[in-house]
Amino acid sequence: MLVSLSIAMLSLQGCYGKMALTKKVYALNGSVQDKFVRSLVTWAFVIVPVYGVSALVDFVLFNTIEFWSGKNPVAQGEKDFKYAANGETYQVHATKSGDKVNYQISCYQGTTFRNTLSIDWNVKTGNSSAILNDKAGCTEFFAVRDKDGIIVTKREKGSLSQVPEMVAQYR
After folding, report:
1. β-pair partners for 142
2. Single residue among 69, 94, 119 that ends a domain in this structure
3. Is the pLDDT of residue 44 over 60?
4. Structural domain span for residue 87
5. Helix 35-47 with 50-57: angle, nearest 10 deg
6. Are 137 and 157 in contact (CB under 8 A)?
7. For residues 48 and 67, what is the distance between their CA atoms, to the nearest angstrom?
8. One domain, residues 155 and 84
9. Would you list the DSSP string of 54-77?
10. End residue of a domain, out of 34, 51, 69
């Protein structure tokens, strides 16, 4: 017993991670629309110990994997959501794999499609690239960190000039 406890303490030291499985269980419970049914699901998850088991598995298994490898296997994945403002609706599909996150954002005005923005973002470096496709054409944007801050450039596909034009600089 003492040897098992010692091994566990050594392998779990500093093991504070994303608790991604527990957050997914919580989000599943939160996705129930009716507040009475959501309350019943909460009670069921507490009585059946879904929350307790997910927290234990997160802490012992997934957060340990994250501590040693730097990646949490449960935190990888996809998410879809919508956002509406000023008569426009944005449908967002986000995927995460390792240090890279991709967003596909489609914009609609009413039921009319306006454009799609695809963003690739490297979480470690902070660098990103984006492609905006609309009726007028396709424009590439690049955001790169340098010693003075962030520089944003753009290049319109199909134009004669292949040199990126500086759009903004943030210090």
Report:
1. 129, 153
2. 69
3. yes
4. 77-170
5. 60
6. yes
7. 29
8. yes
9. HHHHIIIIIHHHHHHHS--TTT-E
10. 69
